[in-house]
């Protein structure tokens, strides 16, 4: 006997049934006991169950969220390589500039305005670089002259110089500040030479770190199949050459500073 699904049958109960249950409800071929109403209900149910079984809600959600993968273009790969190379040079330049600034702040027996580069003055409640609020000049080889743009800052400038590690006593005459550069003793020169050597080595370590980061970026591109192993080797070799160039710049700065310190 065929079973009729009445229109009042809850749709939730229909969707909970498994498709294989429909097979047991299918009337035998040639049966005349199936009414048009029952057949129409059966057809509707079969279509809905098959559609639901084919693409349940979870599968539909996954299909919508599925990412479409594509190969990167040559232009995109070149752009990534260029970005890495530019970042390397920018960071290495900053490293060399930092080393140069550190060297300049170490005084020798001769006057140099750069000796005051790291002096910070408490100006209107905020730490301010001395060079931005005063003009610094060298009247002779053994003195510095500091002329503030605002005379009210003289006391603050004098205090900042006294509290620094320059080892100089400022002479404030109410208009300008004069600094006499004391001669370095042989022992002090050797101490400063060691400090300079340490700063140079720290600069080289910073350059190696930049190189290391760049190689990691190249290896990442290799894992993403954007670069081959040979590409990475060639790029790493070029990177080493750039690193060596900046290493030489630091060596040159160090030798120059060491010569200044040891020259009496």
From TrEMBL:
Responsible for the release of ribosomes from messenger RNA at the termination of chloroplastic protein biosynthesis. CDD domains: RRF. The keyword DNA damage does not apply. Residues 101-262 form the Ribosome recycling factor domain. The gene is LOC113716524. The keyword Transmembrane does not apply. Keywords: Coiled coil, Protein biosynthesis. This is Ribosome-recycling factor, chloroplastic. Belongs to the RRF family. Residues 204-245 form a coiled coil.
